[in-house]
Amino acid sequence: MDKMNIDPLQDLKEDIHTLIGGRQFGSMEELQTVLNDFNRHKNTTPNEDFHGLSSEQMHRFLHFPFESPDLVRYSDQIAIEPESKAALLLSSLVERIGEDGVKLTAKNNLSLKLCQEIAACYREHYDDRFLRSIKIRSEDDFEELNAIRLTAQLGGLLRITKGRLFLTNKCKKALNSGGMKKLYPLLFNAYTRKFNWGYLDGYESLGIIQQSFLFTLYVLHVYGTDWRPSTYYADYFIQAFPLSLKDVEEKTYEKPEETLHRVYILRSLERFADFFGLVELKSVSDTPYTREYQVRATGLLDALLQFRIRSPGLIPDNVLGRTL
């Protein structure tokens, strides 16, 4: 990856110096008008580091990802069955909870028997090396199920009452009207908005990784037709958010870029995009520590959301055919 300037403020200072250096202004109002025009142009012009997004659009991606219908629209009910690990786990859990609910342990966890039943179903569909290698003794051992159970509670789909786990009326209504096609977008919303992606992974907070989930999906939408290395997307993330490198703890054995690559691939690609079936991952590494994959977007990505952005000046012509 090319060396980059991780101080955008310095770039801004240089741009302003170039703009007004040596110019004469008749009044402060005239100077302010020039600066306002410069700022407006800069914020609305497609940024090469953002792959066709302007600074203003990126701001909305980060701070209003579900409230920007002019940039992206989400399907309340997707048109295809959401084949994914997340959907399978939620479906298995909802089926077993049923109308009567399920009894929880003293720590308000799912019972061992229920976890083992769902794990057996999960293993039938997905070849998970980590899950194969461990013996499930509690819900905490089955991290994916634990994440879905917590996310469903945060999203108002499940509730705990007197030591039992029940489906909420919100969940039942969605289930009856559209099944998993209706539940899946609700789970996605809760996972991106409320569930902590850094939960128990041992790395720094790096909240920008989760906050930029929509940018990740955008670049997957733009470039994901072909198989590409996972580092391809990790590089794009660092290019767009270079200041995130300053939040990485210094290590003697690893550069900040390498750490950030690892965390981004783990959280954004493995535990988000792949977990929700929005991409396919093909491992090209023998050790989980290196986390190297080939990545390709799936049809579920386009079924879930539709981007309404077109910036032909920055995106190759062969990519524009993907309904930007």
Description:
Helix 4 (85-97) crosses helix 7 (143-154), helix 8 (169-178) crosses helix 9 and helix 12 crosses helix 13 (256-274). The longest helix has 19 residues, at 256-274. Helix content is 49%, strand content 9%. Mean pLDDT is 87; it is low at 311-324. The chain has helices at 8-20, 28-44, 55-63, 85-97, 112-125, 129-133, 143-154, 169-178, 180-193, 208-211, 213-223, 230-240, 256-274, 299-304, and strands at residues 72-74, 102-103, 158-161, 164-167, 228-229, 279-283, 293-297, 305-307. The chain is globular.
Question: Can you give keywords for this protein?
Answer:
single chain, 324 residues, mainly alpha, 3-stranded antiparallel beta sheet, 14 helices, globular
Chain-averaged pLDDT: 87
Rg value: 23 Å
Strand content: 5-15%
Question: What structural class is derived from the secondary structure elements?
Answer: mainly alpha
Unreliable runs, pLDDT <50, ≥5 residues?
Answer: 311-324
